[in-house]
Amino acid sequence: MTVQDKPFGKVAVLMGGRSSEREISLQSGQGVLQALRARGVDAHPFDPAERDLGELRREGFARCFIALHGRYGEDGTVQGALELLGLPYTGAGVQACSIAIDKIMTKRVWLAEGLPTPRHVFLRQGGHAPQKLQEVVQTLGLPLIVKPAREGSSLGLTKVMQAGELAAAVEAAARLDADVLCEQFIDGEEVTCLVLGAGETAQAQATVRIEAPGGNYDYEHKYLSNDTRYHVPSGLPPQEEARLHALAERAYRVIGCRGWGRLDVMIDRATRQPWLLEINTSPGMTSHSLAPMAARATGLDYEDLCLRLLAEATLDYAEGRA
User: Fold this and answer.
1) For 176, which of 129, 146, 148, 267 could close a Cys bridge (C-beta 3.0–4.6 Å)?
2) 278 annotated to bind ligand
3) How far is CA 44 from CA 13, 130, 203, 214, in A?
4) What is the mean pLDDT of the chain?
């Protein structure tokens, strides 16, 4: 039976939600919805911010495509609700999502497994005293990166060039999350790697190398501007790209992801060492998004990618997985 032949039943495309990434999620969800309908799937939009999740069962939905981003969609909460409802869903399960949404917890797992990720300082709520901020600069040097521990789309991210800028950057990040991550700045090339599948069969797709104006790949340059250049193929030496793919696959597996995930990586300009930044368990699917771009470079178009992910929808406690 091919993906196209598989009977999916009534499918809910979960989009919107209550996170700060709601507008991006709506764009992703509309793209997925159109793609699935174009392939004959009985797909319907479903916004958890406007409807109770219990309606999924009452209205006869058979599975869900999660196109939610950030809190209440990519953090294990919706996944847990769908587990209780017994509705298979796309992407990672409860535990993997709850780890991956937290950049600090993700780093701890990667470091425990011996995987490279930039040095960092974790600032808890109330831990932003001037003396502590001085310690951050002494530990990480300048420039450094400040970002909320549990946000995506580069929201609340600041590149701090001078020590006097740190307090304002931490305050901006803390408006989005009480916990703030201060991270060593890696001077080099920013790349992203899509991984598809589960377990030992998970496989990295084409690498996308990102060239943003001034090296500033922020929210505007991700979604609103057309100034950012994306290189697919990446232009990296084959041996370097192979090393990157092996690292991305391992980082994906140790978090426990399945279905799909996108790894963001910096490659040090001087040493060519790749450094893991974070993993996205529900990547964007907008016209500017990197996941469909990477899949397309390996021969998997947008509609095919959506169908593949839907076909692999499952539960943590599905038969044979518990």
Assistant:
1) 148
2) yes
3) 6, 51, 30, 40
4) 92
pLDDT band, residue 104 (cuts 50/70/90): very high
pTM for the full model? 0.92
The verdict on whether residue 151 carries a ligand-binding annotation is no
Query: Is 153 a known active-site residue?
Result: yes
- For domain 120-184, is the CATH number 3.30.1490.20? yes
Cα–chain center distance at 142: 26
Q: How confident is the model at residue 288 (pLDDT cuts 50, 70, 90)?
A: confident
pLDDT digits (tens, 9 = 90+) for 120-132: 999 988 778 899 9
99-116+187-308 is classed in which CATH architecture? 2-Layer Sandwich (3.30)
Active site residue 21: yes
Distance in Å from the first CA to the final CA of the chain: 25
Active-site option among 25, 98, 153, 234: 153
Catalytic residue among 20, 98, 234, 289: 289
- Check: CATH 3.90.1150.10 for 10-90? no
For the stretch 24-38, pLDDT in tens is 999 999 999 999 999
Indicate which residue of 19, 20, 21, 28 is catalytic: 21
The answer to whether the annotation marks 241 as part of a ligand binding site is no
**Domain residue spans in the chain?**
10-90, 99-116+187-308, 120-184
Q: How far apart are CA 157 and CA 178, in angstroms?
A: 14
Is the pLDDT at 224 greater than 60? The verdict is no
